[in-house]
Amino acid sequence: MKLYETRTAPNPRRVRMFLAEKGLLDQVELVEIDLQKGDNLTPEFTAMNPMKKVPVLQLDDGTCIAETMAICRYFEEVFPQPPLLGRTPLEKAGIEQWLRWIDYYFMMPTGMCFQHTSGYFADRMTPVPAWGEECRTDIQKFLGFLDRHLEGREFIYGDQLTAADLNAFATVEFNKVNKIRVAPEQVHLQAWYERMKARPSAAV
Asked: How far apart are CA 153 and CA 155, in angstroms?
């Protein structure tokens, strides 16, 4: 199997962490895609993912799966242990709820803040700095929400690590490019962040 990715991008990192927690990272060949050079815009890559985004998982038979959580879902179904997307119907629903919240209210504004304030993709889009700054405000609001939620909790959902923790951690980490950090007063979030950072999967 091949995972087409960009090492510095947050979504591929979410997949790498997921694979690392399942002990599967060595079963996938990582293929680097240079987004700034436009490797993702080539006809070859577009044939694998018409959305022209990373990551993309290519199975041994040539089948391609795009989108971070679709890739994670594939591995969860094929390699169910340890479970990172829930054990019971209620857990699966609860984790899916958190994954959606993290994607829509944290990851999406994180990406938009980066794209619209950094100029990284100015050659292929029209940045709107005011929108980027509005997204910065949304990121900070979600960090406050997450801090309050984590009071008295070791993990975001339930009693063990889930994909919600992995996705949130990768997003917190990527926000360094937006010059956004966990605030000193966000002690519950900071404690969770340090626990996550100590896990071997945080280094992949």
From this structure: 6
* Interhelix angle 163-174/10-22, nearest 10 degrees: 140
**Do the bridges between strand 2-5 and strand 64-66 make them parallel or antiparallel, or are there none, so unpaired?**
unpaired
Strands 56-58 and 64-66: antiparallel
Pair 57, 74: CB distance under 8 Å: yes
CA distance 131 to 91: 35
Q: What sign results for the dihedral spanned by CA atoms 25, 26, 29, 32?
A: positive
Residue with tokens 């293929």: 31
Q: Under the phi-then-psi rule, with left for phi > 0, alpha for psi from -120 to 50, and beta for the rest, what region is 140?
A: alpha
Does the predicted model carry a pTM greater than 0.90? yes
Task: Please give the domain boundaries of the chain with CATH numbers for all domains.
Answer: 2-78 (3.40.30.10), 89-203 (1.20.1050.10)
Half-sphere exposure of residue 100: CA atoms within 13 angstroms, side-chain side: 6
How confident is the model over 93-119, as pLDDT tens digits? Answer: 999 999 999 999 999 999 999 999 999
Q: Which is nearest to 202 in space by CA: 165, 147, 176?
A: 165
Which residues, 6+ apart, have CB-to-CB distance to 147 below 8 Å? Answer: 182, 183, 186, 187, 188, 189
